[in-house]
Amino acid sequence: MPKITIQNLQINYLDEGQGPALLILHGWGSSLKSYERLVPLLSKHFRVILPELPGFGESEEPREPWNISRYLDFVKDFLEARCIAPQKDTAKPISIYAHSFGARIAIKWLAEGDKRVEKLIMCGAAGIKDEPTKRQKLAKDLSKLGKMVPDFLREPAKKVLYKLAGSHDYRKASKIMKETLRKVVNEDLTPYLEKITIPTLLIWGKNDTYTPLRHGEIMHKKVENSKLVVFSGSRHGVHLQEPEKLAEEVLKFLSQQ
């Protein structure tokens, strides 16, 4: 795969197909490999651009912890470097497909009212901050006792805490990406949803346990020009579990006038 330097970071990316531009913003911990079944279905009709965001896949990590706004600035710089600059008046419109963490970036972007992005698809979108679960509260309380735990027990104790908190992503992350994840998940994007005015397709796996279906229902109510489609046989990774059905919904939505 080709690489490009953006903001002094070497970035791995995919740019396939011809036609209107469709930008894919992947989820936390994802990579190009996750989309190897979906991209060929979409690139028959669109120019599909998929950067591995900094800190994921073969792309370099940020030099310091980033928040959502920093990732959004990166995405805009990446598109300009690829001769797709939706922030410029002369640019052709693009559409966005965003999954999970990628949807956090898209929500903040589209809340700016950038009319050069004409359509938005969000799948298993993250961005709504829930109250901590009982398990997460317990993990937080136990973490305060960390200094009392003998050194030889600290690593096993950390694994137990991460499991209690349901934070597999956090446990696997580097120090910089751990802090990045904290910054990202602590920002509630609910207030931004009502500012999104472009046609929006929300796709959700009925059995999604990472971003539950009720989040999709909330987003559907708050994004005025939106439609919610539920895949009864999918969980969080719809693009992995039902790529053909997903591609069909995406292409149908993008072809509508």
Which architecture name of the largest domain does CATH use? Answer: 3-Layer(aba) Sandwich
Number of domains: 2
Record the strand order, biggest sheet.
Answer: 1-2-4-3-5-6-7-8
Estimated radius of gyration: 19 Å
Task: Write a concise keyword list for the protein shown above.
single chain, 257 residues, Rossmann fold, alpha/beta, 8-stranded mixed beta sheet, 2 domains
Topology, element by element:
Blueprint: E1 3-6, E2 9-16, E3 21-25, H1 39-42, E4 47-51, H2 68-81, E5 94-99, H3 101-110, E6 117-123, H4 134-143, H5 151-165, H6 168-172, H7 175-185, H8 190-193, E7 200-205, H9 213-222, E8 226-231, H10 238-241, H11 243-255
Parallel strand pairs: 3-4, 3-5, 5-6, 6-7, 7-8
Antiparallel strand pairs: 1-2, 2-4
Describe, in plain words, how this protein is organized in 3D.
The protein is α/β, with parallel strands linked by helices. It folds into two domains: 3-129 and 187-255, Rossmann fold (3-Layer(aba) Sandwich), CATH 3.40.50; 134-175, no CATH class. The chain is built from eleven helices and eight strands. The chain has an eight-stranded mixed sheet with strand order 1-2-4-3-5-6-7-8, with helices on both faces. Helix 3 links the parallel strand 5 and strand 6 (117-123). Helix 2 (68-81) packs across helix 3 and helix 4 packs antiparallel against helix 5. Residues 132-146 and 160-166 have low confidence and may be disordered.
